Amino acid sequence: xxxxxxxxxxxxxxxxxxxxxxxxxxxxxxxxxxxxxxxxxxxxxxxxxxxxxxxxxxxxxxxxxxxxxxxxxxxxxxxxxxxxxxxxxxxxxxxxxxxxxxxxxxxxxxxxxxxxxxxxxxxxxxxxxxxxxxxxxxxxxxxxxxxxxxxxxxxxxxxxxxxxxxxxxxxxxxxxxxxxxxxxxxxxxxxxxxxxxxxxxxxxxxxxxxxxxxxxxxxxxxxxxxxxxxxxxxxxxxxxxxxxxxxxxxxxxxxxxxxxxxxxxxxxxxxxxxxxxxxxxxxxxxxxxxxxxxxxxxxxxxxx
Length: 304
Hints:
Neuraminidase; five-stranded antiparallel beta sheet; mainly beta
C-alpha cells in the first residue's frame, strides 16, 4: 500500500507485540519537507499526518521506536532556516500523537542524526550528534523521556572530557525492556579509529563511564550493537587487519563485563557494514557484506 505519493525519503518503522505499527518518513507539503507518520492498526494504514512543525524549514532524518505495548516516540532533525535542532513526538495506540517537543540544547551549531529507544514502561532515551560551529567538532548528546512525569529532561553531553573532541560518527543506541541501554560509536580520533561504548544504568538513572569496545592497532568502523532482555550486549564492527577487513564481535554480560573479541567471518575478501540483532534470550544473528566491487554477497553468522 502506498502511504505517501509526494517527494519522500528516510522511512523508518516500529511495531508492538499486538501487530500495531507506526511508520515515519520525510515528505513534502508543497513548500517544505516535513516528517509524516501513518499508523497500522492490524488491518490497514491510516492517512498520513504531519508530526513535525509547520511553517518552518526542512525536517530530516526521522527515527521511531516502539515498545511492546504500543508506546512510541519519533525523533528528527528540524531546520528553522539557520540551524538544525532535534525534536520529538510521542505516540500511544488509541491516543495518537501528543505534539512536537524541542528536546536538545539551543546552540549556534547543528544537532542531527537522532537515535531513540523505548523501554517497557514507555521511558525513552534519545542520542544525537551536536556540531559546534566555531570548531566544527562533533560530540554525542542525550536526553531522556520520563513516562512517569510525562516530560523530557535536560539534554546533556555524554562525556565532557577530551574523548569527544574529535568527530563522533557511526553510532547506534539499543535498549532493554527494563530500561538499561547501550550506545556504541566510532570515534574519529585517529587514525586508527576506535569503537567505544557507554551503558545507561536504569537502576541509578545514569550513564556509566565510556569503555573501549575495540582498540586494536588497525582502523575500525561500522559499529553496531544489540541488547537482549537481560541487558547483555552483542557488539559488531569491521576491523582492518592490515591485509583485509574482517567482522569482529564482543559480548557484554550484565554484571560481569566484556568477553574477548572474536572474528565473526573467515572469508578471504573484505567484509563490511555488519549489523546484528538479538532475541530476548540473547541469541544473535550478524549479517554483513562481502567484497568491495563486483559481486558483493551478503553473509551471516549466528551466536547461540
